[in-house]
């Protein structure tokens, strides 16, 4: 939700404002602030030199070409599952392969989709569009007018940024609408269709419409044929919000029941409003609760904290219902009823609403389940009832498609060693296998175990290890440890795909840790490791590393770590706090300079997770672990490999750049690579994705498998 990666003032101008204020490092303390300019000539020249050095070290390795070819074969595989979404005119899929690196938006029928070789009708060729317009267009999805879903606003980004432009597209004619709605100023944010000629728009509209986190905080109603600059504003948050905007409360038929709005006062806290009698009425709900959807004539809420109301306490992570018509008449007075509350070590994950029911995926001790919910009017005036959907046990489950009109729904079932299987039902019978992903590596001789490590404060931290069967516990196995541990995001067992082929099949072990800060055991698992307690996440990860060594699975010289975004910060804290524990560290698209993170990219939006370095008490929390400041002379670091993306307007490449520059200044071995075309998720086409995979696994092999790891130094 930002107009550019660095809107308004440049990094240098922002530094002039903040330098010396509340202890924020400025140019006198930090000689690498110039690397915060994503596309300055000086910064890109630095990137080019670093890329040349790293590619020379890794592409010359005889394993590189093979690893890249193996990864590309997986990414370009024609027999991988083409996941779809339900629309009234067919099943839609977005597909990328060797011939279509930017991708095709296409559709087919359910009957054809059931076959091994569906017949696809191309709706939009993004490669052709990009070539015609001379842009590096990346398809970022669409927002369509219900119930027909044939009039859509297509989102496109140039090179993979989060910021997009939007254009009106007609899926019936398969053309952009001549003279239709166009938002050609790139921005974060989106639109919703009020009707065929009216959009609700929440994006950047120029000066004074972005928060300090560079997200929109105003919304307008835009009528066809008028200028967006003249569209009336209907809601405005505060510049100090993380983000804010208006929305539409729709049911599964597309009917609008209310105009709502929110103000994200922190990343994890929001105030919600409903338009009542021409005014915005604030909903009396906790800041960590939110509307969940309309099911069987009820509005559902989800809460991440205990919610006390009318003498009743709804526990954190529960679902609560109010009668929709009663709520519309009296939004804060409607009676509330418990729909579902978690059991011990349970938490809800995703959800979907079909034509007649609510489906929710759960984690039960990090094992997947799906529950179906309905409001049964035959029981005592009506009660919520649930049943478990018949899907395989001991697997990771997901809902990947559901129909608003019918009871059609699709699920995925997968595990570390089990290729993803797609299940389908129309509601008349239990889900049945529809498609199965091919196996990309040989699982024979591999096994999965779950263990627990004891963190610094005594908390038990579970982790999974995928390893050779009968592995000798002599500490000689090259092991890759990964995790996330933030923002209530759960990292779950999933088919290893390219990692299985490029690493585990080559004799390595793979470990997934479930640290506090994530969402594996519900909201409190997250909330107990944020802000002043964020060090708990880093302690948990280090504890898993120590446990792997103590059990003899590996040893420090054979133990590597990897993580991206928040996971990149995780890896940065780990190798700076315990450089003796690791032999390699891949730091992907990271947060790294936590004393200036609020000035870089959209870092200010994450103050609710980490704290505000401008406040002395909170800066003290952050100073204790900020990896950039913790890189010091005289320490033997594990030659980390940092990589980022020039187009990443979320965490921003400055974090990884500055980490590499600091290591170079101190004469420490390191590698740096920057993908100049990808966004926050890296390479935008399969060839670039395969290249990034090969670079990382060559690095790991050199560091952890070879007789003596490469130095990474100049």
Written description of the protein model:
The protein is of the alpha+beta class. Helix content is 21%, strand content 33%. It has an 8-stranded mixed β-sheet with strand order 32-33-35-34-36-37-38-39, with helices on both faces. Strands 5, 6, 7, 8 and 9 form a 5-stranded antiparallel β-sheet that branches. A 4-stranded antiparallel β-sheet has the order 1-2-3-4. A hairpin with a 6-residue loop joins strand 29 (409-414) and strand 30 (421-425). Helix 3 crosses helix 15 and helix 9 packs across helix 10. The relative contact order is 0.11.
Task: Chart the SSEs and their pairings.
Elements: H1 11-18, H2 41-59, H3 62-75, E1 85-87, E2 90-95, E3 104-108, H4 110-113, E4 121-125, H5 126-133, E5 137-144, E6 151-158, E7 164-170, E8 175-176, E9 182-187, E10 189-195, E11 198-203, E12 218-223, E13 233-236, E14 243-250, E15 256-266, E16 269-276, E17 279-282, E18 289-295, E19 298-303, E20 307-309, E21 312-314, E22 319-323, H6 324-329, E23 336-340, E24 346-353, E25 358-364, E26 367-376, E27 383-388, E28 396-402, E29 409-414, E30 421-425, E31 432-436, E32 446-454, E33 460-468, E34 479-482, H7 498-504, E35 509-513, H8 523-527, H9 535-550, E36 559-564, H10 566-577, E37 584-588, H11 607-610, H12 616-623, H13 627-630, E38 641-645, H14 654-665, E39 671-675, H15 686-705
Parallel strand pairs: 34-35, 34-36, 36-37, 37-38, 38-39
Antiparallel strand pairs: 1-2, 2-3, 3-4, 5-6, 6-7, 7-8, 7-9, 10-11, 11-12, 12-13, 14-15, 15-16, 16-17, 18-19, 19-22, 20-21, 22-23, 24-25, 25-26, 26-27, 28-29, 29-30, 30-31, 32-33, 33-35
Helix pairs in contact: 3-15, 9-10
